Amino acid sequence: MAIDTLKFCPLALNTKPTLSDSEYVTMETMESSANQAPELPCDVSQRFIFDDADIRGETVHLDAALQDILAIHPYAPGVSQLIGEFLAAAVLLSTTLKYEGKLILQARSEGQIPLIMVECSNDLQIRAIVRGAEQATSSSFAKLLSNGQLAITVDPKKGNRYQSIVPLVEDSLAHSLDAYFEQSEQLATRFWLTAESGRAAGMLLQQLPAQTNPDEVLRAQQWQHACALAATVKEDELRSLPAAALLHRLYHENPVRIFEPATVKFQCSCSRERTLNALATIDRDELEDILREHGHIMMDCEFCSQQYRYEKEDLAALFALEHASASPRTLH
Ligand SMILES: [Zn+2]
């Protein structure tokens, strides 16, 4: 499938969500939950909007979903932390789109992590892989991903893929994403990301086109005010406070409405059929050599370590099908 490099993704959600009573948590709930000793938020993403400003936001907290991913392969602490931040960012970006499909963040670098790739589907199923980082020891973003580039790809089930290439700035993924949105023609958007010890969290603010306030000066003031308050959040607050308590802490003087949380989970999209299709991209003679030697072919999913075993008959059926359709196959 062709990839278009566009400055603006046409799938971006660019209107203020309309609310019904059942869709959001009220201010009273927000305050009462802020006054209780909050339980640690787990694997949820939560949308919020400002009543008096054209600004939307999203928070995400990853706990078991992240730990399930980190349990698949051994990673150094600095690498695990970055996987957490990338996954939190992928969830936040995914929630800014109206689509069915997946959003992929893939960074390549000359640093200790040559490749990191994370995915989030529209129903918030996440997975991640890192390649070539067995020797990584650093916790520094600049060392892990030096001279890095980030590709943000939106891969909808129907229609074209959209990809943007983002240079990674030296100090953080959040600042790289901020810089990208600042330079592109998209809605003004800011990110806050954090990860530590198997927990990750993030928050996004996005300025929407004028609906509530057409006055440009007021709009700019509201946006700067919301960002300045968000910038006061401490990393441990972002990780440990549930959305209601976090937003009360930041915006108790501004009416903010919070939507019901959506669950994020680790779920790999690999399947026996997709993995078999990937075999079709390998040279046929090479596959026949493996079959002669071992009697079968094993394929491991890099994302979840699931193993798939294929016999000679499976390959025969695949190549017969391949011949009939005469179309190239790729792993999706
Ligand atoms: Zn898998």
Please tag this protein with its features.
7-stranded mixed β-sheet, disordered N terminus, 11 helices, Hsp33 domain, CBS domain Like, alpha+beta, 16 strands, 332 residues, binds zinc ion, 7-stranded antiparallel β-sheet
Short précis:
This protein is α+β, with helices and mostly antiparallel strands and 332 residues long. It has helices spanning 27-35, 64-70, 77-94, 141-144, 173-183, 216-230, 235-240, 243-251, 272-279, 284-294, 312-325, and strands spanning 3-5, 24-25, 44-50, 55-62, 101-108, 115-121, 125-131, 149-156, 161-167, 189-196, 199-207, 256-259, 262-263, 265-266, 297-300, 307-310.
Task: Provide the fold topology.
Layout: E1 3-5, E2 24-25, H1 27-35, E3 44-50, E4 55-62, H2 64-70, H3 77-94, E5 101-108, E6 115-121, E7 125-131, H4 141-144, E8 149-156, E9 161-167, H5 173-183, E10 189-196, E11 199-207, H6 216-230, H7 235-240, H8 243-251, E12 256-259, E13 262-263, E14 265-266, H9 272-279, H10 284-294, E15 297-300, E16 307-310, H11 312-325
Parallel strand pairs: 1-9, 7-14
Antiparallel strand pairs: 2-12, 3-4, 3-12, 3-13, 4-11, 5-6, 5-8, 6-7, 8-9, 10-11, 15-16
The structure holds zinc ion.
Residues 268, 270, 301, 303-304, 306 line the site of zinc ion.
